[in-house]
Amino acid sequence: MVKKSNKDSMISTVELGRAIKRRREETNMSLRDLADKTGVSASTLSRIENGTGKPDADNIARLTNWLDVPIDRVMKGKSKKDTVEPVVYYPHEATPEIVEAHLRADKNLSPETAKSLSELFRVAYSQFSDSEKK
Amino acid sequence: MVKKSNKDSMISTVELGRAIKRRREETNMSLRDLADKTGVSASTLSRIENGTGKPDADNIARLTNWLDVPIDRVMKGKSKKDTVEPVVYYPHEATPEIVEAHLRADKNLSPETAKSLSELFRVAYSQFSDSEKK
DNA sequence: GTACTATGTTTCACAGATGGGACACGGCTT
DNA sequence: AAGCCGTGTCCCATCTGTGAAACATAGTAC
């Protein structure tokens, strides 16, 4: 018989919340920005990021979709081997194009600064992806 | 902005229900048997198999775990990057001197920040040009 | 026939997740 | 100073999934 104490929840919500928050701050989005983008309300996002309660299936789907991570990373349904999966990690999907979009959207940065930072990231990015490629 | 009419749910519950029912009948298990095995109550199982309502995250995890199928099979998250706003990228001459000038001229940046960023760019730039000259 | 059991369904009260709105705080601008 | 705007959090009414128990039905044994 499978016990079902509230403790052994099958989903690791805290990790999800941390991942969301990190990605959100990395891309300089507000909770309401993310809410518009994902369809999850700001209040719910706040709760999730702080690990309060468990999001329902739809919101998990929406958020993992936005994060572009497999849901299995969040729902520990160890189907095959007991890979003690770490947690939600998320590869930087920050392409130079995305970064530049964010920089240019930042009202606190002058166009010149935004441009310079874009350039900077592009240089670093090319370095990174080069070293990645074998 | 992502609309959120209750219709376009991110999870396809009906398929999950069908799969559960099929597998359960294949193995000649009653709802209560499955309930004992998975931790999901018989009543909830009945609802899921009949496609009534949407199971919460925990139950989805338990059932997909029992089915031994990846959850992504149930949660249809098109992980495509159709949300990336198109951006025109215009490269420009980004020497450390020019970048630094821009940063220092930006009155929205503290001198320390400008300096740090200049430094950062110089490091990345030197590495980049090093790898350029093979 | 009457019991009894097994199975799926439905009822019901409850716990909790959700989203809109209000709130407090901080940063800017005037 | 005051006002305004953005941000995160919290409150609260509403909605929804859940599980135990009651229910309906069918089959089986007596």
Greatest contact pair?
A-B, 55 and 57 residues
Structural class of chain A: mainly alpha
Q: What is the CATH fold-level name of the largest domain in chain A?
A: 434 Repressor (Amino-terminal Domain)
CATH class category name of the largest domain in chain A: Mainly Alpha
What is the count of helical runs of chain A? 6
Silhouette of chain A: elongated
Number of distinct beta strands of chain A: 0
Helix content class of chain A: 40-55%
Question: Could you name the CATH homologous superfamily of the largest domain in chain A?
Answer: lambda repressor-like DNA-binding domains
User: SSE order of chain A in H/E notation?
Assistant: HHHHHH
Oligomeric status: homodimer
Mean pLDDT of chain A: 70
Report how far apart the termini of chain A are: 48 Å
Q: Major β-sheet of chain A, in short?
A: none
User: DSSP strand (E) fraction of chain A?
Assistant: under 5%
What is this structure, in a nutshell?
The first copy, chain A, is mainly alpha-helical and 134 residues long.
Provide an overview of this structure.
2 copies of one chain form a homodimer. The first copy, chain A, is 54% helix and 0% strand. Chain A has 134 residues and is mainly α. Chain A has 2 domains: 7-78, 434 Repressor (Amino-terminal Domain) (Orthogonal Bundle), CATH 1.10.260.40; 85-134, no CATH class. In chain A, helix 1 (13-26) crosses helix 3, helix 2 crosses helix 3 and helix 5 (96-105) packs antiparallel against helix 6. The interface between A and B is large, with 55 and 57 residues. Chain A binds a DNA duplex (30 and 30 nucleotides) through helix 2 and helix 3.
